[in-house]
Specification:
mainly beta, Immunoglobulin-like, 3 domains, six-stranded mixed sheet, 13% helix
């Protein structure tokens, strides 16, 4: 691996190789590094210009350093593998065939040096000794040597390339690629200890599969905080069996777990642990493995994910009156608050709304209240209302899209409960 000076060291080495060849073959010639637009044709000096016009990740080695970080910090130094693409242009008097002679000398020189050796790199670095901008380069120590390869571009690719140099005419040129340049960040890394004891574990792969989740009384019965639900599927039983709901994991008693069914009592197994809303359910079979004489639990096998809707449960007290009027308006409406009990507990980041629909008839209209505050100790939520007409209202609570359950006096009647009365 090399430090950040590797790219400059490659350029310097190539420049030195070309310079040693062309200065002997073409009298008065020189080699420059930079944009070909900056080469002056008025000087009359035969010139080879070397320009690094593109840098690309090496396709073979670009992912060799993944990952560089673990849970405890930097595990190894970040590394990058690059290919360098050079445009070599030849400037001179065409009447004397100077560009062609410069090109011939360059091609022969680079063909004779297809791999940058340690001495090639050292010679290139020494050419920049004043000032010494490349002295600390360690490219010569890189295990994988940088190889030079001539590339062929189509007419379309050449046209696209030269449009990037609007101030330079189309010139006799070559394309060379230097590959691969390996660079490493000079930062401290924590090297882990080697493996002291190797252990091989063989287990039968049996992934649990959940097909359906229903209330124990049927699929049409809403699931609430104290409901009993049934998970049905295949390969559900293991020792132990863990049920995860909304990221909360509970190890189930063996008596409620069968190969195709798990009975879960939310009111007992997950009491006070789940919020209302759409929750994700999974089954997990942990695996214990011995590490240095200590049994360590690993994730094991996890089922597919099935969503359920946990409906909030609300209670409307008859005493004290849940409706408090703070102001009676001239148009016969009122301002005030409505307080209802709710389970499970509400969370500050939840979307909570109270829907009020007229209980007297469907044409009575309704309101939706969104300003609320929650008392955790009383397990009550209080909504502010304004300009609400007097009368009875059937109320529903929405928590993250999950709706509280309404009741009917008979199957053919309107929903009648729970209700509040606005005086």
């Amino acid at each position: 691996m090399s430090n950040f000076l590797a790219i400059g060291a490659v350029t310097a080495a190539i420049e030195k190789i070309i310079s040693q060849s062309v200065t002997g073959d073409v009298t008065g010639s020189q080699v420059e590094v930079g944009n070909p637009s900056d080469v002056s044709s008025a000087s009359g000096i035969p010139t080879v210009n070397l320009f690094l016009f593109q840098v690309t990740p090496n396709a073979q080695l670009r992912n060799m350093n993944v990952p560089t970080r673990g849970s405890s910090g930097l595990m190894r130094r970040p590394q990058v593998a690059l290919d360098l693409h050079y445009l070599v242009t030849f400037h001179g008097n065409h009447a004397n065939l100077e560009p062609e002679r410069l090109m011939g000398s360059t091609v022969v020189a680079l063909e004779a040096h297809p791999v940058l050796t340690a001495s090639d790199i050292a010679d290139g670095i020494s050419a920049y000794a004043s000032p010494s901008v490349l002295d600390t380069s360690d490219l010569a120590d890189q295990l994988d040597r940088v190889r030079l390869t001539q590339q062929t571009l189509s007419i379309e690719e050449l046209t696209n390339l030269w449009t990037a140099f609007p101030d330079a005419p189309f010139l006799t040129s070559l394309i060379y690629t230097a590959s691969v340049v390996l660079m490493e960040a000079q930062v401290s890394a924590r090297t882990p200890y080697p493996v002291s004891t190797a252990a091989l574990y063989v287990r039968t792969f049996q992934q649990p599969q959940i097909d359906t989740i229903k209330h124990e009384d049927g699929a049409s019965v809403p699931i609430e905080h104290d409901s009993a639900i049934v998970l049905r599927g295949s390969s559900l039983r293991a020792t132990p069996t863990v049920v995860s709901i909304d990221g909360v994991e509970v190890t189930m008693s063996a008596s409620v777990v069968r190969a195709t069914r798990i009975d879960v009592d939310l009111g007992t197994d997950f009491a006070g642990l789940l919020p209302a809303g759409v929750l994700i359910v999974r089954v997990r079979h942990p695996v214990e493995m011995d590490q240095g004489g200590v049994a360590v639990e690993h994730t094991g096998f996890t089922s597919n994910s099935i969503p359920i809707v946990l409906h909030p449960t609300i209670t409307v007290a008859s005493s004290p009156d849940p409706v408090t009027v703070s102001q009676s308006n001239s148009d016969g409406t009122s301002d005030g608050t409505i307080t209802i009990g709710v389970q499970p507990a509400l969370q500050a980041n939840q979307d909570v709304r109270l829907q009020m629909n007229g209980a007297a008839s469907p044409s009575q209209g309704g309101y939706q209240l969104t300003e609320w505050s929650y008392s955790e100790s009383a397990q009550e939520v209080t909504f502010n209302f304004a300009n609400v007409a007097s009368g009875p209202y059937v109320v529903r609570l929405y928590v993250d899209g999950a709706e509280s359950v309404l009741t009917q006096t008979s199957p053919d009647d309107l929903y009648a409960m729970p209700t509040v009365e606005v005086p």
